Amino acid sequence: MCVSRFNFSAKITQVSKPAKLFTHFYAKFTIFSTHISSITMVLFLNQDNFSNFVVLFMEIDINKINQHIDLPVFHLVGKVADEMKRECYVVGGYVRDIFLERTSNDMDFVTVGSGIEVAKAVAHSFGKKHATLAVFKTYGTAQVKTRDGLELEFVGARRESYRHDSRNPIVEDGTLHDDQLRRDFTINAMAISLNEATYGKLLDPFDGIGDMERRIIRTPLDPDITFSDDPLRMMRAVRFATQLQFDIYPDTLKAICRNAERIKIITRERIAEELMKIVRSPYPSRGFYLLDKCGLLKLIFPELAALKGVDNSHGRGHKDNFLHTMQVLDNVAQNSTNEWLRWAAVMHDIGKPATKRWDDQLGWTFHNHNFIGEKMVPKVFGRMRLPLNEHMKYVKKLVGLHMRPIALVEDGVTDSAVRRLLFDAGDDIGDLMTLCKADITSKNQEKVKRFRDNFDLVKSKLIDIEEKDRVRNFQPPVDGAEVMTTFGLTPSREVGLIKDSIKDAILDGIIENKYSSAYPYMMQRAAELNIEPVNNGQLCYATASSPIGNITIACSTQGIILITTNNATDMLSKLGKELKLTVVEQDNTLIARCREQLDQYFAGERKEFDLPYHITGSEFAQGVMHAMAAIPYGSTATYAQIAKATGNDKAYRAVAQACHINPMMIVFPCHRVVASDGSLGGFRGGIDIKQQLLDIEKK
Fold it and tell me: Which of 263, 267, 254, 206 has the alpha carbon at shortest distance from 233?
């Protein structure tokens, strides 16, 4: 942009509202040439001496315009308009974005005359197979959607007038200039001709180009009229300033301040749409600062406005929680495009005004502001017409949890606390940590560094414990249905107590997150509540089919006691007498769980079994079984190696005998124990069964 000074005397007949130093008079001179670009001249006249002015030459790149409108769709629309003898222009966002060097799919067309008629003709030119037409007679608009994803909006040029109590205009047919006058901002009031005789000509009567150069948002007409007529334009001014990182022209901003109360006639849904666009912006805090500055924030989002200001007591003040929230919001925006995570940042401290207290020992406190804020989120979403679905629940959860990682930093990191955080946050743990890291703000950089170092320790703990315990989104291995079936209960407080005690035991590290640990813990907790299992005193058994033949599975209330392919009658009778249990042919949840895991094993989907066991036999025999269980899946061990593992190197014959009588031949894998020369040796199910099991594992 080049600046030249001239002395000039002329009678000025059209002058816009005075600014502080200059009155802006926009005289447009457009020079067309095959060799140079178009030039726009903007005259800034000293309001005290109209004989001196400055001409700003702003270069308009004709090639840039041609590049963006030399598209088949624009030529087709122009051709249709010429055939109908109609003026037709592409207007609004598409034209604006040419000069902002942004891609745009927003194609709005204005025609002098009926926009619906032109839209019908354009759709006909595309053909039914390539485009669809939607007509909105109430609004005098039509939309053409093409097969390749273009959306073309058509409207007839019009002039508008408004009633004070409504933003719905009274519409009359008008000229292109009338239509440009009704546009919200100068940068959106530009048009490019599509008619052949003037194809590509830019019509910019309010110097939208200049306002983009100056990076300002300004209304074409008196801003008080503009905003009073359609108060939503106040939100749009803030939104455009935020998205484009422009300033709102001082007169325009003052008009928003004067008309802020008019926002009350706008539906909350439309306000929410603009807020969403502000939140999605690169630096969303800019929008909230502007909303506050012009008086809109307290009207549309009083909970956020209530965070403003600092109270002092005993010479001590807390930080301004509005400024802090804006910093947190921008911190999150620099690390995530997730708009709902950004909303969580906006709302994370909204509970602070209600919980602010002075404590003589601690100073200013905001105890439980996260829980109060969590309860406020649904009410705020409902009033602002934000979605009351999983997005609201997500924001609510993050607001409620946002102090937890910080508390771990302050109190020291325990495995139990980290497990609980993982469980409560679930798949949103990553977003929660992003929010919490963004929440570490202070002018004291040493404090920030210390908190962030500790915060990294928490993140490291989260990764380690998640890999080890798998508690994120976990469901306790024993669910309520199994509790009720095992103890013959109906839904009740006792069922909840047992379920919760299992969950808490896992999160506190008392038991592992495994069924084999949870089942006996369930039995223990039920005994403490004087609740007996329905199969108490019984040895239950059932059969299951498998690639190695029918398998008999038996269990006591303590766990699985028998898995065999042999005729199990004698073994069941012997075990019943030995343990003083009544033998009953009956399926139950424990047998069903064993059957499921066996199916997975035979399908190659499981290497280790996760079952509670009721191990019988001598102390030595039990030691042998545990030593066998430690043999890696797919490997074998010799009788001598198992004997050594039990602490008795010479007991390999006893090991062979223990293997032969092992009542749970698969889950305690005696089939993996072989003689020192590699021969298979004895096996309760027979050598063929032993070989089959080894072959299954090799596959």
Answer: 263
In this structure, how many other beta carbons lie within 10 angstroms of the beta carbon of residue 586? 13
Give the pLDDT confidence of 335-350 residue by residue, as tens digits.
Answer: 999 999 999 999 999 9
Can you list the alpha helix ranges (DSSP code H) found in 580-647? 589-602, 619-629, 639-646
| Packing angle, helices 250-259 and 285-293, rounded to 10 | 70
Burial, 569: exposed, middle or buried (Cβ in 10 Å; 0-12, 13-18, 19+)?
exposed
Cβ(602)–Cβ(696) below 8 Å: yes
Residue 218: C-alpha distances to residues 188, 461, 661 (Å): 10, 52, 91
What pLDDT does 14 receive? 36
Reply yes or no on whether the pLDDT at 27 is more than 60.
Answer: no
* Cα–Cα distance for residue pair 495/276, rounded to 1 Å: 44
Please give the pLDDT value at position 169: 59
User: What pairs with residue 202 in β-bridges?
Assistant: 192
Q: DSSP string spanning 55-108?
A: EEEEEE-HHHHHHHH-SHHHHHHHHHHHHTT--EEEETHHHHHHHHT-----EE
Rounded Cα–Cα distance for residues 533 and 146 (Å): 67
User: Which tens digits make up the pLDDT trace of 243-288?
Assistant: 999 999 999 999 999 999 999 999 999 999 999 999 999 999 999 9
398, burial (CB in 10 Å: exposed 0-12, middle 13-18, buried 19+) = buried
Contact yes or no for 53/45 (Cβ under 8 A): yes
